[in-house]
Request: fold
Amino acid sequence: ANPSLLILAGDGIGPEVMEQVKRVIGWFGEKRDLAFDVSEDLVGGAAYDAHGTPLHDDTMARALEVDAVLLGAVGGPKYDDLDFSVKPERGLLRLRKEMDLFSNLRPAQCFDALADFSSLKKDVVAGLDIMIVRELTSGVYFGEPRGIFEEGNERVGINTQRYTEGEIDRVARSAFELARRRSGKVCSMEKANVMESGILWREVVQKVRDTDYPDIELSHMYADNGAMQLVRAPKQFDVILTDNLFGDILSDCAAMLTGSLGMLPSASLGKPTEKGPPRALYEPVHGSAPDIAGQGKANPIACILSFAMALRYSFDQGDEAARLEAAIETVLAEGARTADLMGAEGGTPISTAEMGDAILG
Ligand code: NAI
Ligand code: MG
Reply:
């Protein structure tokens, strides 16, 4: 049977960028004899409009069956006043939770043609290709106790940074597996100097490396220094492994090394399944962009690169993923630019579909 893919285009520009991904998927079936069993369903506001819930149970069940899920974006002003329990992002959160996607991969890759877009000097970022692995399902965003409590005559806001050995172990493995497909180098970031969870993090990551990944070159860095190094000399890194909170911040920081939100893909991976590859959800980093939705202006590259990640990590088609990335590199080098990629030099932007044409051409 063909590998299976569930497409959840979602809201706003989600369906617009996904349209171009579907053309790319069709191209692989036709030209590369790489066909997928594609199904499509609703998520977010679109699912709420149809079913009164941001993710239907049937959709959830399907997501657990397929080899990979590809999601566009969810949300928009139309849904801002909905009750929290049915807000569009709850659909995405449910997917992440029930698929147990604990490892979030965010590449920061600088396409040479866009190096001028970086917040940094061109030579600092040209050729940059690093990957941040962020723990996604635990840590301070979930730890108990949490809340705002009365304490004496004032209130106190409490969150708890909490990591079990098992949670650290599994995300470390995911980073080491990834590093084996890359340069074999991992830098783990925490704050073991001031945090108990950081001490445990460092210890467990080192133990997993020493026990099962002796081929990996592992280093440790305090996360604050990591932030500094990311901006000073990002090319010293290959895979960066870090927790939920630091990963949130460091990955946004790394994102800006490379320019537009319209270029950034991501993957969220879970435990390896019986079939081999882990449960996986691929999505662009950007949201539904209501300010440009419906105007054909959205950059489809982030979503197309997310599919490239699916080719590499879920379907074991690294060469085909590289082929797709090279096609994107080429059209950018030739000057194809959606509106978000227009620099100070000006010019005429192309549409979402025209960018798709260029990449397929
Ligand atoms: P956003 O990422 O949707 O947009 C931020 C800015 O970047 C906007 O000016 C937008 O036009 C631009 N932009 C984003 N993607 C682009 C693309 N592919 N091509 C060209 N320009 C692009 O973030 P924002 O505005 O904070 O949120 C809008 C909605 O999206 C909200 O409802 C929010 O909750 C939701 N959202 C959903 C996410 C998801 O589905 N994973 C992630 C982030 C936000
Ligand atoms: Mg963030």
In short: The chain has a mean pLDDT of 95.
